[in-house]
Design brief:
There is one protein chain. This protein has 10 helices and 13 strands. The protein is an alpha+beta fold and about 325 residues long. A hairpin with a 5-residue loop joins strand 4 and strand 5. The longest helix is centred in the C-terminal third of the chain and has 25 residues. The strands form 4 sheets. Strands 10-6-1-2-3-11 form a 6-stranded mixed β-sheet, sandwiched between helices. It has a 3-stranded antiparallel β-sheet with strand order 7-9-8. It has a two-stranded antiparallel sheet with strand order 4-5.
Length: about 325
């Protein structure tokens, strides 16, 4: 019996060392979509990928180890008059373009932190989620700080635990109005807003923690910024656009693309913003990979949830009609 017990223990130890591709990963659920099969972006829709690097005043010259810890897709439906935010958690397990498993936020770092790395990241997101994202904007923490300050700051409601975290962090009492004393609503400067978005170990006001909580906080700040601009004039919007362009680290958007985005923003200012997180609740689980904590996700469930969120049932009906032609 003792020999059998030792043998069983050895088997368990060996199994625990096997790569995720041999064990926990459900290959059927992680079947990627070929480029030719990706659903085209419907007419009137525009996708813009906002990527935030995990650094302040990032040093591009020396290619420091930056990762895309903030990933939010802004989608504008110019026909249905909708603005939507889709956030992607940074520790999501994905299949890299080279066929290896990894975390989604590592792709940019692993592929050289350049335009090719960004295209690789978009390629990966598109194939996992059946999207056709083409445009991207890359910023860092300092960029976000300056943009928030340019709009005059943001009002954010925090819990007592968030208040204790922020008070213990190295932000000045003057970075919020009034100075943080406990749970409540405060006016945040850019620096304080970035620190708020970076909170990971404390639950949000809705109870979300870790990277799920971070994505929620990022959507909260972006939504609050949009709400604060409901009365912005065209000249003021142009000034803000100058700040955004000046603080953008990398982008493949042209001046014409920026003006198109500005015109849509003016057209839809004051429009309530809808948001979703990838992965959705109850569709992911913790799955260690290469010594890192990652989240295995059910791709089929999340593709369907994202499709319904972005395009709704009307798009599915159009697909059916097109298929019968």
């Amino acid at each position: 019996m003792r020999t059998k017990g030792i043998a069983l223990l050895l088997c368990l130890m060996i199994l625990s060392l096997l790569p995720i591709s041999s064990l926990a990963a459900d290959h059927e659920a992680y079947t990627l979509i070929e480029d030719s099969a990706i659903t085209p972006t419907p007419a009137g829709y525009h996708h813009y990928m906002l990527l935030c690097l995990d650094g302040w005043n990032t040093d591009w010259e020396h290619k420091m180890g930056y990762h895309t810890d903030g990933m939010i897709l802004v989608t504008v439906d110019s026909i249905g008059h909708r603005v939507m935010l889709t956030s992607f958690i940074r520790d999501m397990l994905i299949v890299r373009p080279d066929g290896e498993w990894g975390r989604i936020n590592n792709l940019f770092y692993l592929n050289g932190q350049n335009e090719g790395a960004l295209n690789s990241l978009l390629y990966t997101i598109n194939r996992h989620f059946d999207l056709d994202i083409e445009k991207y904007i890359v910023v860092d923490f300092s960029s976000v700080e300056k943009i928030v300050d340019a709009v005059g700051g943001v009002d954010i409601t925090i819990t007592d635990r968030e208040a204790r975290y922020l008070k213990n962090y190295s932000i000045s009492a003057s970075s919020t109005t009034p100075a943080i004393s406990g749970g409540g609503t405060y006016h945040f400067t850019g620096h304080a807003a970035v620190i708020y978005m970076r909170i990971r170990k404390v639950a949000t006001i809705t109870g979300a923690t870790q990277d799920v909580g971070r994505t929620e906080r990022a959507r909260t700040v972006l939504t609050t910024i949009a709400d604060s601009l409901s009365d912005i004039t065209y000249d003021e919007a142009l000034d803000l656009l100058d700040v955004v362009m000046d603080r953008t680290l990398m982008t493949n958007m042209t001046a014409g693309d920026y003006m198109t985005a500005l015109d849509m923003a003016m057209q839809f200012k004051g429009t309530p913003i809808d948001s979703i997180r990838m992965p959705v609740d109850n569709s992911y689980r913790l799955e260690p990979e290469a010594g890192m904590a990652t989240q295995w996700i059910d791709l089929s469930v999340n593709r369907e949830a994202l499709r319904d969120f972005l395009y709704g049932s009307e798009f599915a009906v159009l697909d059916d009609e097109d298929a019968g032609e």
